[in-house]
Design brief:
The protein is of the alpha/beta class. 38% of the residues lie in helices and 26% in strands.
């Protein structure tokens, strides 16, 4: 999934259109992909990225060294900053992994100034992420137990209605939603399949939990069904849902 994060971050920031000179908070910053995109695209006054993973924060500090960026180890549900500290608080591809997403949004509201921007985006796991949706459809056809791993079932908030409902817990106005569209390309089926054997993420974790026979059956079904051109490359659309609002 990570290889597509920067493409989505760029599309998100173009749509968000926050003025230059803003103070930013990047919640669940992970390795700092969105934080770096803000630094390069938005001319911020400052950016703070927070994440609960020491390993992610260590990586971000080592690799995202733009001026004005700071990374802090922090739980998204207990942000260590005073009220109204930021002009924009965002969360890219992380809101559905927070144990209490409503509480995290309340913290984002608290630390954002009145009139500031609160925004997030999530993968459309149920319908819009073709390279992942095709995987789960193939896996479920082979092994019905795969349904329990499918993010489309696990994360109902990753939809327009789910995001609207979630944002109702905070005091905001001018709520807007948009689809973020990118194209994912793989040079070959092997390039598509290899990351699924990494053991990192929902689909790789699922495959790691299955025996060799099931893994082979899923692989064969996918290889026969994915849209492959004459050169063996695979190209599929992918969609995320973005939401933004103004702090009341």
């Amino acid at each position: 999934m990570g290889r597509w994060s920067r493409l989505l971050a760029d599309e998100f920031l173009k749509w968000l259109c926050v003025s230059s000179g803003a103070r930013w908070l990047d919640v669940c910053c992970g390795s700092g992909v969105v934080t770096e995109a803000i630094a390069e695209f938005c001319s911020p006054a400052s950016i703070v990225g927070i994440d609960a993973s020491p390993a992610q924060i260590a990586f971000a500090r080592m690799h995202r060294t733009h001026s004005g960026i700071a990374f802090e180890l922090s739980d998204a549900t207990a942000v260590p900053f005073p009220d109204a500290s930021f002009d924009a608080a965002v969360c890219g591809l992380g809101l559905n992994y927070i144990s209490e997403p409503a509480r995290a949004l309340q913290e984002m509201q608290r630390v954002t100034r009145s009139g500031g921007t609160i925004a997030a985006y999530v993968w459309d796991y149920a319908q819009g992420v073709r390279f992942l949706r095709d995987f789960w459809d193939a896996a479920i056809a082979v092994d019905p137990e795969a349904r329990d791993f499918d993010q489309g079932r696990r994360f109902p908030m990753c939809s327009p209605d789910g995001l609207r409902t979630l944002f109702q817990v905070i005091e905001v106005k001018e709520v807007k939603l948009s689809a973020l569209q990118i194209v994912t390309r793989f040079a070959s089926f092997d390039e598509y399949w290899a990351p699924l054997l990494s053991g990192q993420g929902s689909a790789p974790n699922y495959l790691a939990s299955r025996d060799a026979q099931i893994r082979a059956a899923v692989r064969d079904r996918l290889q026969a069904s994915l849209p492959t051109d004459a050169q063996g490359s695979i190209e599929m659309p992918a969609r995320a849902w973005a939401i933004r609002a103004r702090r009341a």
